[in-house]
Write a structure and sequence with these properties.
Strands 1, 2, 3, 4, 5, 6, 7, 8, 9, 10, 11, 12, 13 and 14 form a 14-stranded mixed β-sheet that branches. 37% of the residues are buried. The radius of gyration is 18 Å and the shape is globular. It has one helix at 2-17, and strands spanning 36-41, 62-63, 65-67, 81-87, 91-99, 119-125, 132-138, 144-152, 155-160, 171-177, 189-197, 214-224, 228-232, 247-251. The protein has 1 helix and 14 strands, in the order H-E-E-E-E-E-E-E-E-E-E-E-E-E-E. It has 252 residues and is mostly beta strands. Strand 4 (81-87) and strand 5 (91-99) form a beta hairpin.
């Protein structure tokens, strides 16, 4: 009963604060960003961290590039970073291909502070009537951080998935190119491949999106070599949580 009360209280707070959520104004007044992309549909397939499935041939790769990070006067050094996305009747597939020189990764646990080391991130905002969205992070060593973010007037709180099991668990795998997949190894790059089931985003998402459905979202990378570099698809003012600057995803 206590858990149910806490969840109901959270939703009540979100609903009452939705009209003023976010640093840039009300959710309902958020301007559509300039950039959008079409997500192609696929049949389900097995991931291996290499992106070797033939299904990926249908997806167009796009670049994510550096931007200024928190307290940075200029963007850090940029490595080529490409992303592909597909969706099926069960969930969404993501493939990040990250050129790199060193795997700055020491955290050996899920739900750790992965963003303090090398990481890729996906933010999905399916229901723009509420300031709540999914944040998913994956490290080069294949440790994950899946959380639901409530963002009320620029103040954020992350909530772990409840009963995180085979019903709603993310499938994920990583690989290293030109070196070993181990902490602080010298490499030429690394890849992250993962499948996010729609069940993880319940009740924001009731099921597979129909053709023409639009979500908002953004895609990120943080690289910690000699200098920290923050990558994004749609540029933010420093914080990755500026959801009113997310791009538009259109399901084919």
């Amino acid at each position: 009963m206590l858990k149910r009360f806490v969840l109901l209280s959270l939703w009540a707070g979100i609903l009452s604060g939705a009209s003023g959520a976010g640093a840039s104004g009300a959710v309902s007044r958020a301007a559509d960003p300039d950039s959008s992309m079409v997500i192609k549909k696929t049949t389900d397939f097995k991931i291996d961290g290499e992106g070797s499935s033939a299904n990926w041939a249908a997806a167009r790769a796009f670049d994510i590039t550096v931007q200024k990070g928190p307290k940075q006067s200029a963007p850090g050094k940029q490595f080529p970073t490409k992303v592909k996305i597909l969706y099926s009747d069960k969930g969404m597939y993501f493939l990040f291909d990250c050129t790199d020189k060193k795997l700055t990764a020491t955290i050996m646990e899920d739900f750790g502070l992965l963003f303090k080391e090398d990481v890729v991130e996906v933010f999905l905002w399916p229901d723009t009537s509420l300031p709540i969205y999914l944040e998913y992070e994956l490290s080069p060593l294949d440790y994950e951080l899946p959380i639901i973010i409530a963002n009320i007037k620029g103040r954020t709180e992350g909530w772990k998935a409840w009963h995180y099991n085979d019903r709603n668990r993310v499938q994920h795998a990583t690989s290293a190119q030109g070196g070993q997949k181990k902490s602080m190894a010298s490499v030429e790059g690394w890849k992250a491949e993962f499948f996010i089931p729609y069940t993880l985003m319940s009740p924001m998402v009731a099921g597979a999106p129909k053709s023409g459905t639009k979500w908002r979202g953004n895609f990120y990378r943080i690289d910690y070599d000699a200098e920290t570099a923050y990558y994004s698809w749609q540029k933010t003012g420093g914080s990755f949580h500026e959801f009113n600057k997310f791009g538009t995803l259109i399901f084919e």
